[in-house]
Amino acid sequence: MIPEGMRDVLPPETGQLRAIEAALCRRFEAYGYGEVRTPWLEYAETLEAVEDDTLEAGYRLRDQQGHELMARTDMTVPVARLAAARFRDKPLPLRFFYVSPSIRPWAPQRSQDGEFMQAGAELLGLHSAAADAESVILLCDCLAALGLRDFRVALGTVAFYTALVDSLGLDDDREKFLEALADRDYPLLESIAGNAGVDQNALKVLWRTLQLSGTRDGLSQVRKMASSDAMDNAIRRLVEVGDLVGDAGFADAVTLDFGLYQDLTYYSGVIFEAYASGVGLPIASGGRYDGLLERFEWDIPGVGFAIAVNRLHEALEEAGAAPSAAPACIAFAGGLNEPARAMELRRAGWAVAALPDDAPAPPRPRLQRSGGSYILELADGSEVSGSWRDVLRALGIA
Amino acid sequence: MKLGLAGDGGPPAPVLDLLERAGLPVAALRTLAGPALVDAGEVTWLLAPGADVLEACARGALDAGVAGKDLLLELAPQVHELLDLRVCPDVLVYATPEPGAAALRRVRPRVATRYPRVTRRHFAASGRQVELVAFDAALLAPGLGIADGVVELRSRLALDDAFAGPGRPTGLREREEIAVCSARLVAGRAARALGGARLAELLERLQASVEEG
To answer: B58 and A152: CB-CB below 8 Å?
Structure first.
């Protein structure tokens, strides 16, 4: 038995996941990102520097001195903590990536495993739309490099809503209102807005915006709704990022989506999510989090994303593009007693699992000694029997 | 296109009427109770309980679905609410037995409901404590002595009774309105990102038929 929501991962899936992770690492490195690893336990107060609902449910324990520790629930906050603690005197920008599991209590209604592997990249120290764009481009490049063809990255912005909500003049009810907004709870929004004396039309505008996605038409409608400089700027920024991503060759992959929302409270600007057919939930998500490092007393901006490796794996399988796991392993009956010969095959690049002489017939491909000669049966059904030299020739070695 | 329709014992007629006005092939659905998958050419329909429709949307199996706002509030599924279809209007209410109303006297009344999340949030919002009693046939709970009040849809506050005929009132009296509900069009996050144009067209057709109706 293992705890609810956790799972064991078995071959060949492990091999496929490792291949995916390795390919992602190569992309991250190609953009100059350096890998970081952080402990899976942090001081609870470190993670609590960010107000996030998911933290309330996080796993907590105490160390011997009685400090409260917490299992990390994502990697962005630990990376921000690490950057603020160790890179303060380094020139900006900083680029970090990670491939690490995080742990959250299992929530079946969110289709979220208790432990999940994330591969992510964080770009710290740049305010520009170009930095937002790099993050989105890197994500697209990662997905394309793995052979995922018809993925879609939805591009939205938190800044637009913040400005819109600010323009409503809610004061004390602002937090409650944003919460209801994230829940898409219209009646509650109406009642909060009603109590605060908000214009019903402004509320309708907000609701309409939430429904717009994807189309040019949507963009022009949102432009019309913008009633303040902050809202204008948010839209202009989003379009600029979209254009830059298009310049990099991913125009078809990106859609502007003003209805996009994120549960995480630290996002401050552009946000984005990647989807692929066959997987209902985002295979990656990210965004700009300009206020996050300030919580660790270093006021620099940041933007980044995390790929949910398991969901990406699902999407690749759905698209028939899952990387092949380790090459088929030849089961060598009697190989345990002939280590030199088993070695000879391995040196030539074959995987060989050595078995005792009397091992029951393993699945193909298999190699058996019979008297002084060998029988080699390959996965495709072909069969060779003869001397060791014949075996080598059949495997293309001699 | 794959669309889901919520409803225990088949999708409600007002929803089907609306979809029909929008030109969607619903003829075969009128006599079906579900759960079922119905291939109607242009559209494949999923008829299932609301929670299932929402789950199927959230997991990317459907282009869109129709479900009650009460369930959206309760389950907070990972879907986008696209359109208020303005049919099957209802109100989630807090009701207590008349005339006893022990609920009014108790510091921490027991509230029976199929909507624990909505109930908890509603009472917490006004700083009141209640003891939740998860009970699908909530309106029977006060009579059984296990609850002092119920949170339920207004339309369900009347009780089917084999002896007195349907619609016999349970003696529950509404105290508070919690949320106004109706049938809503929803789409999963992936369907919304991947199905842009198709979904936009459906939305437009339904919007038109909502405004007609």
So the answer is: no
Chain segment A47-90, per-residue pLDDT in tens: 988 876 666 778 999 999 999 999 999 999 999 999 999 999 99
Judged by a CB distance cut-off of 8 A, whether residue A152 touches chain B is yes
- Please state the rounded mean pLDDT for residues A335-357: 93
Are A54 and A83 in a shared domain?
Answer: yes
Structural domain that includes position A223: 13-318
The CATH code of the domain that includes B48 is: 3.40.190.10
Tell me, yes or no, whether B175 and B192 share the same domain.
Answer: no
Residue of A nearest to B203 (CA): A211
ipTM of the complex: 0.71
Model pTM? 0.84
Do residues A337 and A304 both lie within one domain?
no
B23 touches chain A (CB under 8 A): no
- Residue A106, pLDDT score: 78
Which alpha helices (H) appear in chain A, and where do they start and end? 13-30, 44-48, 53-56, 76-86, 129-145, 158-168, 174-182, 186-195, 200-211, 216-225, 229-245, 309-318, 339-347, 388-394
To the nearest whole Å, the CA of B32 is away from the closest chain A CA by 28
Does A120 fall in a domain?
A: yes
Q: How far is CA A18 from the centre of its chain?
A: 14
pLDDT for the residue A109: 60
Q: Which of B72, B73, B192 sits opposite A213 (nearest CB)?
A: B192
pLDDT of residue A111: 63
What is the model's pLDDT at position B197?
76
Residue at A3 is within a domain:
no
Name residue A97's beta-bridge partners: A35, A121
Question: From the CA of B161, how many Å to the nearest CA of chain A?
Answer: 33
